[in-house]
Design brief:
2 domains; Aspartate Aminotransferase, domain 2; Aspartate Aminotransferase, domain 1; 16 strands; 41% helix; three-stranded antiparallel β-sheet; binds ligand F0G; seven-stranded mixed β-sheet; alpha/beta
């Protein structure tokens, strides 16, 4: 059960089907353009959408808003240094700001960054620094149905080949994303992390963690990895950070705050370089674009997030929804992680071709039938067509992500999601696809306009 009770509530909008039909037409079937008050259950992202605890709010009241050297910074820095073991801690307003500062300071144009899977902003920041981002997911990740527990791992053979190969000298960093969001929220094992760290050390390449969901990764390690069953998630997280040379973190996930992030580093010279850029572009080194109260709430959130009772319930609620979805007759990317479920829309709608976006069709149907907002992760996001709408490139899978905000929705909300999916699955063959009528050249899914086929 939930290890907390509800003290403050926020009404959620209840809409009619007619209103939702109107809204979908108005936004040209792009769910990013809906107003949040047209959405009943918002599963678009688990980022910055969590509920604060009473202790976090109280910590926020203690916030010291001094421009430089605030008490909040020192409390924050000590908490993060203790968790990670890194001596140099720089706050940043969110994950992508930390990425930009770290990559601009670490990478030379023409270098290569390797990862189990780069998250899309991580890839964008590598590319903006004039570098190449290469993903090396483990082969097990390709089978969506297999229940192997560590499908977020990096392919160690491929990593060895890249580091020892002709491009090896150009590799400037290896990034391990824990958990692997781009790879279905799957965790990375400590064994995989340790071996990756050994390879990096042997080749003199820094290993960095993209630690947005470090606590959820640690929880899954305690559940599934031999030798870790008796460890606490906090102990596993501490060990993971210490295997790497540094980290960047979007605290909007496992910091359970609405805004915040940081960089942690062992290397003093790199930290100094990052600090100079931070001061020029984010804010002074003791606030990094955040308010003092944000730093205090983040520090408190980072302590709460590794509580076993909190993580156990988060895993349980995800498993509860996963079971509802399976019973409804919809396949998911197995096994379910903690931060999201990925629905296999390609399999649910085999009659909709990739260039008519089965994932988007499912997202729109979830909104129309249940007021639920989700995110397409398929050919609308990753595909490409020519000017006449004929397919040029399609995504490997047509998925829809249901991201689960932290401490926000109850089992009855998720039961509504399950029931809605059940209704959709029953008349799956009657659901149609979409065609694009207007799109932007990059990150098209945010601004695209569509029409039912
Ligand atoms: N790294 C990972 C693994 C992420 O999932 C995200 C954000 C970021 C970095 C960037 O952090 O948003 O604070 O700038 N993921 C969100 C999501 C947006 O919905 O998955 P940010």
């Amino acid at each position: 059960m939930e290890p907390y009770r509800i003290k403050v509530v926020e009404p959620i909008p209840i809409t009619t089907r007619e209103q939702r039909e109107e809204a979908l037409k108005r936004v040209h079937y792009n769910l990013f353009d809906l107003r949040a008050d047209e959405v009943t259950i918002d599963l678009l992202s688990d980022s910055g959408t969590g509920a604060l605890s009473a202790a976090q709010l109280a910590a926020g009241m203690e916030g010291d808003e001094s421009y430089a050297g605030s008490r909040s910074f020192y409390r924050f820095r000590d908490t993060v240094a203790e968790l990670t073991g890194y001596p140099h801690i720089l706050p940043a307003h969110q994950g992508r700001a930390a990425e930009r500062i770290l990559f601009s300071s670490l990478l030379e144009p023409g270098s290569i960054v390797l990862s189990n899977t780069h998250f899309d902003t991580t890839r964008a920041n590598v590319e903006l620094a004039g570098c190449q981002a290469r993903d090396l997911p483990c082969p097990q990740a390709r089978n969506l149905d297999s229940e192997e527990p560590f499908k977020g791992n990096i392919d160690l053979e491929a990593l060895r080949r890249e580091l020892a190969g002709a491009d090896g000298p150009k590799v400037a960093a290896v990034v391990m994303t824990i958990t692997n969001n781009g790879g279905g929220g799957q965790p990375v094992s400590m064994e995989n992390l340790r071996q990756a760290a050994d390879l990096c050390r042997r080749h003199g390449v820094p290993l960095l963690l993209d630690a947005a969901r470090f606590a959820e990764n640690a929880w899954l390690v305690t559940r599934h990895e031999a030798g870790y069953q008796d460890r606490t998630p906090r102990q596993v997280a501490e060990e993971a950070f210490r295997l790497a040379d540094g980290c960047m973190m979007s605290a909007k996930k496992d910091g359970i705050v609405h805004i915040g992030g940081f960089i942690g580093l062992k290397d003093p010279e790199l930290a100094e370089k990052c600090e100079r850029l931070l001061i020029a572009t984010e804010g002074f080194a003791t606030y990094g674009g955040l308010a003092g109260r944000d730093l205090d709430m983040m520090a408190q959130g980072l302590l709460e997030v590794t509580e076993p009772s909190y993580l156990a319930e988060r895993a349980d609620i995800a498993a509860h929804l996963a079971q509802r979805v399976r019973v409804a007759g919809v396949d998911i990317l197995e096994p379910p992680g903690l931060h999201a479920l990925y629905l296999n829309a390609g399999r649910l709608f085999p009659h909709i071709p990739a260039h008519h976006y089965p994932g988007h069709a499912l997202s729109c149907q979830l909104y129309l039938e249940g007021g639920i907002r989700s995110a397409e992760l398929g050919s609308l996001y990753l595909g490409e067509e020519d000017e006449d709408g004929n397919p040029v490139k399609s995504a490997p899978y047509e998925l829809v992500r249901l991201a689960l905000p932290r401490r926000v929705y109850t089992r009855s909300h998720y039961d509504h999601v399950g029931r809605t999916l059940e209704g959709i699955a029953k008349k799956a063959e009657s659901v149609g696809g979409f065609r694009i009528v207007d799109q932007s050249p990059i990150l098209r899914h945010f601004r695209v306009k569509l029409q039912p086929v």
